[in-house]
Amino acid sequence: MQRGAALHRAALHALEATAARTIRGFDAQAHVGERAAVIAAAAAVDASELSAAMRPLPARSPANAIATLEQARRRLAAATTPSLSPPAGKP
User: Fold this and answer.
1) CB neighbours (10 Å) of residue 65?
2) How do the pLDDT tens digits run along the chain, 91 residues long?
3) What share of the chain is helix, strand, coil (3-state, %, to 5)?
4) 54 and 37 Cβ atoms separated by less than 8 Å
5) Which DSSP string corresponds to 73-91?
6) What is the C-alpha separation between 51 and 55, in angstroms, rounded?
7) DSSP state of 46
8) Distances in Å between the alpha carbon of 48 and those of 34, 38, 68?
9) Residue 11 CB burial class (10 angstroms; 0-12, 13-18, ≥19)
10) Residues 6 or more apart from 26 whose CB is under 8 A from it?
C-alpha cells in the first residue's frame, strides 16, 4: 500500500502543478472540493469523482484514484495547450 500511496501523491502533485500553471487563481482555492471543481470545469471531467480521487488515498482501488488524477491532468494540459497548427487561412 505504501507504493500506491506514493504514486497517488505524485499524481496529485502533478495535477495540482499543472493546474497552478494553467488556471488563474487556482492557488487561492484552499478546499479540496473547490480545487476539484475548478480543475473539473477546465478539464471537462466529473467533479465529484475527481474530488474523491484528490483526497488522501482512498480505501478503494488506489489504481482508480491514480487513473482519475492522471486523466484530469492530461485533459487539463490538452485543454490549455495552444494548437500547433496555423490559424485557418494562414500558410
Assistant:
1) 24
2) 577 888 999 999 999 999 999 999 898 888 889 999 999 999 999 999 999 999 887 666 788 999 999 999 999 999 876 654 455 555 5
3) 70, 0, 30
4) no
5) HHHHHHHHSPPSSPPTT--
6) 7
7) -
8) 11, 12, 11
9) buried
10) 16, 19, 20, 35, 38, 39
Q: What are phi and psi of 53, to 5 degrees?
A: -70, -25
60 DSSP assignment: S
Joined together, the cell numbers standing for residue 1 give 500500500
Position 16: which residue type?
E
Phi, psi for residue 74 in degrees, rounded to 5: -65, -45
pTM: 0.82
Task: Classify residue 45 as left (phi > 0), alpha (psi -120 to 50) or beta.
Answer: beta
